[in-house]
Amino acid sequence: MTRTAILAGMGAVVPPRSVENEELARTLDTNDTWIRTRTGIRTRHWTDTGTSTGDLATAAGARALKSAGVDSVDLVILATSTGNQPMPATAPEVAAALGLGQVAAYDISAACSGFLYGLSAAAGAIASGVAGRVLVVGADVWSTRLDPQDRSTTIIFGDGAGAAVLRAGHADEPGALLGFDLGSDGAGRELAQVAGGGSRERGSGRPPSPEDAYMTMQGKEMFTQAVNKMAASSELLLERIGWSAADVDWCAAHQANVRILHTVADLLGLERSRMLVHLDKVGNTSAASIPLALTDAAVSEQIKAGDRVLMTAFGGGLSWASTAMRWPEIDVMEISTDI
Ligand code: COA
Fold it and tell me: For residue 306, what is the DSSP state?
């Protein structure tokens, strides 16, 4: 039987400082009612000075290893678009901080789809025998890249990290990643981007502009793309693994806007109540959003062992990804603010 990646443990963290809608409304032309009704977000967590993406990733990774009951892996994959620095990757730092030794470690840059891209890379490494056990972390600290004057991004994004330990097993075990659908469209690059800091800007001959260090987003177009791409990718995935929408107990979709979640449910023919909603507590945490939502749902026993879970994500790139599993019997600790 084919060697398959199985979910063995999960862990997640957010920084302790919570930033309420009212706090943002003190400096931006916005208000709590608009943010709640147009996005579903009530609060989010932002890091304090001195905390990096690597710190969050390490804390989430430690909890995932504990949840899986292991202290070693063969590979660490960190999905992030806000790494500690442009070079080197942050994953080796995370592996070292976790005391995992000189294991293979690399970053994946796929914005809000990064965690599912990471699961796919880990599943490939396990299937091919490159690794027997993999730690996949999704972590982002977008608060350091938000233009404080930009109400379309500042109200949405929160910081956080979520991690999963995958082990080798068989496709018929609970927790097996049953298949993937992945895609990208570089023609949409400018819809959500940090324009500065890379070779395009550095090689332009122009002095770097401080504004280009901020994330910009064309919200309306991203909304439309998010809905269409997550629905289409989910449908392809379900067909590939032989599930219908009626088989899906829970859908963990990228948490950007509750209206996006409802529209994806409508397009897929899923009850809206099947969509996990965690963004009200943490905002859009980019690569961390799916593992955070799953951790929250597992701890509250919304998701139970045996439930069929569809995961789907969309983000900058453009990039999108979907996968699915039957939820395994695992011990998951509540989301921590202990970084
Ligand atoms: N507070 C108050 N009013 C706001 C506002 C805010 N934060 N942001 C926009 N508005 C206003 C606009 O000025 C506009 O006013 P007008 O009708 O008088 O011109 C109105 O609200 C609607 O603006 P619009 O840009 O159409 O808002 P929206 O409903 O599309 O919501 C987002 C904006 C950013 C919340 C929404 O587009 C979104 O969630 N996009 C998707 C993000 C995403 O999926 N990212 C993907 C992965 S990262």
Answer: T
